Amino acid sequence: MPAIFTPSDKEGLRRRMLDAGWSCLLSRGYRAMRIEDIAQEAGIAASTFYGFFSSKTAFVTEMVAENRRELVGALERELARAEHGGERAVLERWMREVWHGERCIFRCLSRQDFQRIRAGLPDDVVMGPEMSGGALARLLERSVGEARDADLELAESLQRVCAVTLLARDAFTAEELERAVDALIDMTLDALFGTRHGRGEE
Question: Is residue 1 within 8 Å of 44, Cβ to Cβ?
Fold first, then answer.
């Protein structure tokens, strides 16, 4: 492994580490996941890891931020291709993929671990499903532009409830959990687009 990395080398290593991080997080959980595990999974030395990230918390924060950037980018591309009036269907598919996906951080962390990580984050880093501010808010405002009754505040609150529900997943059976997530997604979409565009009417 060279001591000096080109920008391309650095980006490749960063991506390998982030992918390795998700693999370790999913198989071991946050508390049991060690820097050595991530480095071994990525095929690098632990010292190389610390050349990119100062701590496990900083690393997990970047995992979440990178995943969020990718998801928002995917939504932006899908909305740009959507026909007028098809925004709800696009957003519904996207939300189901996000909330049911294995890289949904709320499925990977306990409530205590999530609070511990969030407490150490800079003010400008968001781990939660907040819709206000930033690229996601702009996309949502554009996509619900004609829905005069769109309630972004309620939609954001419902998404927070979804996050809290997943963090408390041990209180539910697997079936109850997934049904609750789907119901919260449906309510979020109704808050954004109104029930006149309800399920089954697209």
Answer: yes
70-127 pLDDT per residue, tens: 988 899 899 888 887 788 999 999 999 999 999 999 999 999 898 888 887 777 666 7
Which among 198, 188, 200, 201 has a CA at the least distance from the CA of 91? Answer: 188
| Angle CA 114–30–173, to nearest 5 | 75
- Angle between helix 152-167 and 174-193 (nearest 10): 170
Residue 154 class from Cβ within 10 Å (0-12 exposed, 13-18 middle, 19+ buried)?
middle
> Shortest CA distance to 25 belongs to which of 89, 93, 117, 102?
102
Q: Is the pLDDT of residue 48 over 60?
A: yes
Q: What is the pLDDT of residue 68?
A: 85
Torsion of CA 86, 91, 92, 96, to 10 degrees: 150
